[in-house]
Each structure stands twice: as C-alpha cells, then as structure tokens.
Amino acid sequence: MPEKTVREMNEYERKHFSLAARVFHSALMGSVVLGLVALLIGLGLYTNALVGQYIGEAFGLSRSAAAVVEQVIDTQSLSSDVMEIYHSLSEEERAEPRSDEFRAHFSHITEKEDYWVLRAILKEFLAASDVNDVYFAVYDRETGAIVYVTDPDERPGHICEPGDWEPVDAEEIELFLNWDGKDKLHYIGNRENYAWLCTAGVPVYSGEDATPCFILADISLKEVAAGMRSFVIQYVIATSIVTLIVAYFLTQHMKKTLVKPINAIADAAQDYVRDTREGDRSADHFSLLNIRTGDEVENLSLIMADMERDLVEHEENLTRITAEKERIGTELSLATRIQADMLPNIFPAFPDREEFDIYASMHPAKEVGGDFYDFFLIDDDHLCMVMADVSGKGVPAALFMMASKIILANSAMMGKSPAEILTSTNAAICSNNREEMFVTVWLGILEISTGKLRAANAGHEYPVLKQPGGAFELVKDEHGLVIGGMDGIRWKRMLQTLNADPDATPEEILKTVEAAVNNFEMDSEQFDDLTMLCMEYRGGRHADGAEAETCDGEREKAV
C-alpha cells in the first residue's frame, strides 16, 4: 500500500496505484494463477496419459513377442542353462559381470540355434517399436538380480551378453514373480546403469513347473521428460497469450463498468464541492452522469444524486433558518435591554434619602425572563417594594411580566394597601388571561418615618428580616390564594449565607447570595431566573433611632 495519499502523489504514482491499474494487475494475476493451476493439472494428466501410453506399448510389445517366442523356441532350456551356470559361480566370479573372464563361462550359450532365433525375433520387434530395448531375462530372487539371456540391443554401453546381470529392487522382483495375470505388468525404477526406466513384460513358461523367464521391454523416462518439456513449453506460450488477451479484455470491461463510472462520480463530487464554495447551488452534478451499469455503481450514482438534491435543499433551509435565528437573536437582545431598562437599575437609587438603602438584581435564565422586582416612592413617606415571579420563561413570561409590573405600579400609586393592590391586580390579570398564566407576588409598603412595613404575599417566597443586633430570619407571613410557592427548605441555605456577614450593605448581601447560588450550581446551566431585592431601613428622620433591615430573595426550584 502507498504511504502517500492520492492527493500527494504525482501523475505517474496515481496511474500506478489507480483502480484501472489494480484491475489489470488483479486480472493478470488471476489469469496467471489460473494458468498455473491448469498447467499443473494438465501436466499431471498429460504425464499420466503419456506414461500409460508407454506402458501399454511396452506391455503389448512384450506380450506379442512372448506369443511368438513360445511357438518356436524352447525358452525354458535356454534360460535354465544360463541360470545353472550363473548359480555355479562364486560371488567373486560374479563380481565383474561384463568382464571377458565372466562372459567366458557363458560363451557356449551363443552357439545354440535357439539363442540366435530368439535374438532375431526380439530384434525385429525392437525395430518395429518405439521402446528402448526388448530382451529375454530371468529375475533371481536369491541374488536380487535380473540375469540377461538374450538382448538384441547393439548400442555401445547397452550390449548385454548371456549371463550378464544387474541388481534390481526386491519390490520389482516380487512384482514380476508374483504377477497374477491381471493389469499391465510394469515397474518404474532407477536402474544403476540406465537411470529411470519403465520396465514392462510378460512371463514365458515352457512347462507347468518351469521357472518363469520374461520377455521385457524398457522405456527410458527421459522420453517422458522430453515429452513433458515440449508440452510445458507449448502450454506456457499458449497460456501466456490467452492470459494477456483475457487480462486485456477483462480490464477493458472493468474500466467500462467500474473504473470509469467511479471516476465520473468522483469528478462530479469535486465539481459539486467547487461550485458549492463558489456559491453555485445547482443540483445536477450527479443526476447528469447517466450511469447505466445495472449494479451497485449505478445505485451509488442515484444515491449521490438524491443526496445532492437533499443537501441543496438543506443548505437553503439552513440559510433561511440561520437568517431567522439571527433576526430573533437581535430582537431578543433588544428585548433583554428593554426589560433591563424597565427595572430600576441605577444605584444608589435614592442618594438623598438617609433613612434607608436599597439594592436589587435580576439575572434571567434565558435572554428574557419572567421574574422582576420594583421599588418606588408612592409619596415622600412611603416606599413600595415588589418581588414577583411569572409562570414560564422566555418571551411569553417577559411580556406577562411587563404587563404585571405596570398594573402593580399603577395600583400602588393609587394609595391602596398591599392587599388591595394585589386584589386589584389579580382582577385585572384574570379578566383577560386566555393562556392561564400566573404570577406570584410579594408586595410591601414601608412607612419611612416610623419604619412600619405592611406587606401582602400572593404565593411568593417568604421574606427574610433582620432586627438590629439579631440574625436573618424568615418571616412566615400568610400567603394569598395565588399558588406558586416553593418548598421553604431551600431558604435554609440562604439564611446561612445571609448570616455569614449580617452587617454587610444591601449590595454586598445580594452579591454574597448570588455567589453562594453560583457555587451551589457549579457548572450546571441556570434553569430559572434569579431575582433579589434587599432594603436596609436606618430609621425615620423623627424616629427614636431603632433600625430594622428586611431582605427578600427568590429563586424558584434552586435548592
């Protein structure tokens, strides 16, 4: 596998590792492997057939010669004379079978007429066949040798006189001496003087109790090897030509049905990417390919065409949605600023009033929220404070919050009591509230000259009050009918935070509470608005110096 990516390759490397080159290499390799397998199978079949042909020829020749010899010659007498002399010799005398001294013991055999008649018959059969030699011999089990009686082969180095012998495998001896007359009698072995030979033959009997002697025919396996070599050369040449032709046409077919369609799909993909970057969103790069291979490649092109149309449509929708989100984001940002501007946000709020100090904050969970606070002077001696939480979040809650704030402020400026303010506000909201939203409200009016605080609670959190020299404590005032209150257990953590520094200013107190809430949340997303208001009462201008401080903090479901 190449170490470079296709984009890092040069033109030559791309052609070398291209799909077309791989297809050609695969086709060529497959053809070569197939050719080798066919060669091995064919060579085996050819060798088996050729050897079988030679065996059949040698066996048939031996059988024909034996049929003639048995009619005209007393082979038993001839072979018996040779074997009697052979067995009468000592091992030392038999040690040099082709020497003049050894052959002198059998010289009288060549004076017999049967010997020359047999030799002439065998010579005629040898001349009329393709075998290497036809001869008359005896297998001797005792000495493990084949003893020649008559051999017409006159080639130098191959002449065998009567009595000449050669060692042979015991397996060959037993095979020939124990032949049952079935199949073609033959043996393939390595003769010391003749290398690999295929010897076939038939026994010749002159009587029922006679020792078998054999008409044998030899075929050198060099002939088989030569035939195999010729076959292999012709086969390899033919196979190479066929392989190249098959590889070429297979490659052309694969190029047409696989490589070119895939390259066309790749080119279309590149054109699509380029045109998309340039702003052209036409959806016809893949649909115009017109690939008709009828297989997975055609299906891939159709899928790519569908994908391109879907992507173009998706990009158009995404562009439209992105523009809409940007517009909404801009409007929400403006709504956030408008909501913040509607709440008192300049501190100190009443720098010319020494009787009290007040601070408040609101952090919506989303861009805009439903919580709000408010404080304002009804007259020179009465300070109205409001803490509220509208059901829901986001823009609907913000709209409802603004309406609720205006109604509460208007009712308070009419000089009503806290209970009356909430009652009239409830009536106004319920008169046109199809969405069934609600708001929880704590509203208190402080008489600045005396420090007297009157409050009403419509399902809101309990306020927290700290007397001079004391600790912050919950004031469990009576709730109204409006539901929406939270479990008071959360405020146990709030009291601990407030009492950590009871003498802090209202601004410092709220910042401490906010820090405690943030520490409690850790990395969790803020899920509700956080609105707090703290007022420190320092005493009226004509009071006896008593001081009181009240604080109301709210965060729905935070603890």
Per DSSP, the total helix count is 13
Strand content: 15-25%
The biggest beta sheet, please? Answer: 6 strands, antiparallel
Strand order of the largest sheet: 3-2-1-6-5-4
Distance, first to last CA: 62 Å
Radius of gyration based on Cα positions? 60 Å
How would you sum up the global shape? rod-shaped
Give a count of the beta strands, DSSP E runs of length 2 or more. Answer: 15
Mean pLDDT: 80
Note poorly predicted spans: 482-492, 542-550, 553-559
Q: Please write the string of helix (H) and strand (E) elements.
A: HHHHHHEEEHEEEHHEEEHHEEEEHHEE
Structural class: alpha+beta
Give a structural overview:
By secondary structure, the chain is α+β, with helices and mostly antiparallel strands. Helices cover 48% and strands 19% of the residues. It has helices spanning 11-16, 19-72, 75-88, 91-94, 100-104, 113-127, 170-177, 221-277, 296-342, 394-412, 418-430, 490-499, 506-521, and strands at residues 133-140, 145-150, 165-167, 186-191, 195-204, 213-220, 356-363, 371-379, 382-390, 439-447, 452-458, 464-466, 472-474, 530-537, 548-554. It has a 6-stranded antiparallel beta sheet. The chain has a 5-stranded antiparallel beta sheet with strand order 7-14-15-12-13, covered by helices on one side. A hairpin with a 3-residue loop joins β4 (186-191) and β5 (195-204). α10 (394-412) packs across α11. The two termini are 62 Å apart.
